[in-house]
Design a protein that fits this description.
Blueprint (H helix, E strand, L loop, with lengths): L1 E5 L11 E5 L6 H9 L3 H7 L10 E5 L8 E6 L8 H18 L3 E4 L10 H12 L19 E5 L6 H26 L7 H15 L2 E5 L1 H7 L2 H7 L7 E8 L8 E5 L1 E5 L19 H16 L4 E11 L11 E3 L5 E3 L7 H12 L6 E6 L3 H7 L4 E5 L2 H14 L3 E3 L17 E2 L7 H10 L7 E5 L5 E2 L9 E2 L4 H10 L1
Parallel strand pairs: 1-6, 2-4, 2-5, 5-6, 9-11, 9-14, 10-11, 13-17, 14-18, 15-16
Antiparallel strand pairs: 3-4, 7-8, 8-11, 12-13, 15-18, 19-20
Helix pairs in contact: 3-4, 4-5, 5-9, 6-9, 8-10, 9-14, 10-13, 12-14
């Protein structure tokens, strides 16, 4: 979507539709001016409760020539005292979805003028771009009738120059490009988004932004001794790989932040095969890797002054005569031996080798993202990602970032007593315990491979995909993790 910035009064700007924000308990100057121009229409809508200004509500009305804008889209902001960036972000997403339903391709917004927060402009731009996303690459029918947005005009707030506003819009657009990349990757089917596809995506990303990219193929994984990663991919014709991307935005002496993303391009469960119903959604098991690639895209585009390393262990978990099986014992890269009790607990296996590998970069901090456990969905539903870690400052920083950007996280304990469930009778560890506390025991397992590195684990199993449309995230892949990571990195 093309975004333009105009220093024009909303009351004088001709456009197919103008978006304004409306409070539940107050009428601001713009609302009142539009009400007067429309002969009291807005007041009557409020009095009759046809539109009350409640959050996540909207109402599209035709101005019949009484305003330069052909239509006025009223978007509810809730109570004035409760307005914040997230409320504006959600309202912008809600607005753009209402315009999609009405097939209005070009529009202007004054929604940010209702917000007095410092980042109101960015919040509205972000919500609009995230809410306008769609993925229809595999639909071949009725292409001529398919709707797409043409352009958005942001009406300039007072006290901000056009150049300053355009720069802020550009930064927001770069962030949303990272989210869109992550959403696209998760949306692609497993026969397209293979381990090789992720590797090619990393190469193209590196070429766009002059990053360093290295792909460790099977022979190199064998030479290194990454047997846990190799084992997960043994049942597939698509070989496992380790993708390493490096972004240098700070001096050579600054230690990098390492991002590790689980890249299981399809998870059948292996020999411990999953039920057939809903298995098609297991193409999303590489959402952690998508988040890392999206974050690297955004960080490089924004030229953040940090050093970053993105590490993606990627494999396809399939049943086959060569597949690893329950009862096998693997020797991981760290030398720790692992008894396999469930081949469907494969994510922690590819991650344990990657986390140990990452220590060679002497990270200032290390964050992994993974659609790791169904237990996290049971615990937190689809509203928050699970968060665990060995450093409270890092955990707190991620919490703060999540609240700021709207990708909320919830901390779970990581006490040593949870490790009792992961002890094996014949090896150092086993890869799965009982169902009790399953997301925590999986996190505890990962902790054994990070050494003394400051580390946090994000279980995004419940937040990477949505079965229903939300204001800033249409049904499907959410791209969760990208905005959270960028907000955290900005905070550094």
């Amino acid at each position: 979507m093309k975004i333009d910035v105009q220093a024009t009064s909303p009351l004088k700007h001709p456009c197919p539709a103008l978006i304004i924000g409306c409070f539940e308990d107050a009428a601001d100057e713009l609302f009142s001016a539009c009400d007067i121009a429309l002969g009291g229409c807005l007041s009557r809508l409020a009095a009759s409760k046809e539109f009350s200004g409640k959050a996540n509500s909207s109402r599209l009305i035709h101005t019949l020539g009484k305003l330069p804008a052909e239509r006025l889209l009223l978007v509810g902001l809730g109570k004035k005292a409760e307005l914040d960036d997230e409320r504006l972000r959600q309202a912008a997403g809600n607005a753009v979805q209402a315009l999609r339903a009405a097939r209005v391709a070009s529009f202007a917004t004054a929604l940010h003028l209702a917000g007095k927060t410092e980042n109101a402009l960015e919040a509205v731009c972000e919500g609009t771009l995230l809410g306008s996303y769609s993925f229809d690459q595999y639909k071949t029918k009725e292409q001529e009738d398919r709707f797409s947005f043409a352009g958005l005009t942001l009406l300039l707030p007072k006290g901000l120059t056009k150049k300053e506003a355009a720069a802020r819009v550009e930064r927001t657009a770069l962030l949303c490009q990272g989210v869109s990349l992550a959403r696209d990757l998760v949306s692609h089917p497993g026969n397209v988004a293979t381990t090789g596809y992720l590797a090619d995506t990393a190469h193209k990303l590196a070429a766009r932004h002059t990053l360093t990219c290295e792909i460790l193929e099977l022979d190199e994984l064998e030479r290194l001794g990454m047997n846990a990663l190799i084992a997960v991919g043994k049942g597939s014709l698509e070989p496992p790989r380790l993708i390493v991307l490096e972004y240098h935005g700070a001096g050579d002496k600054e230690r990098p932040v390492v991002l590790v993303g689980k890249g299981i391009t399809f998870d059948s469960g292996g020999i411990s095969i999953k039920p057939g119903a809903g298995m098609e959604e297991m193409k999303t098991d590489m959402a952690g890797s998508a988040a890392v690639l999206g974050a690297m895209e955004a960080a490089a585009g924004l030229r953040l002054p940090v050093n970053l390393v993105g590490i993606i262990p990627t494999a396809e978990n399939m049943p086959d005569g060569k597949a690893y099986k329950p009862g096998d014992v693997l020797t991981s890269l760290s030398g720790t031996t692992i008894e396999i009790t469930n081949t469907d607990a494969e994510g922690r296996l590819v991650l344990c080798d990657a986390l140990h590998f990452a220590q060679r970069y002497k990270p200032a901090a290390m964050i992994d993202l993974a659609t790791l456990t169904g237990a996290c969905v049971v615990a937190l539903g689809h509203e928050a990602s699970g968060l665990m870690g060995n450093d409270q400052r890092l955990v707190n920083a991620l919490k703060k970032a999540g609240e700021s950007c709207g990708e909320r996280v919830w901390e779970l304990p990581l006490w040593d007593s949870y490790g009792e469930a992961m002890k094996s009778d014949i090896a150092d560890l086993k890869n799965a315990g009982s169902r009790d506390g399953g997301s925590i025991t999986a996190g505890w397992f990962l902790k054994q491979f990070v050494g003394t590195t400051r580390w946090a684990h994000l279980d995004i199993a419940g937040t990477a995909w949505s079965d229903k449309s939300r204001p800033c995230s249409p049904k499907g892949a959410t791209g969760v993790g990208v905005r959270l990571l960028i907000e955290y990195l900005r905070g550094r």
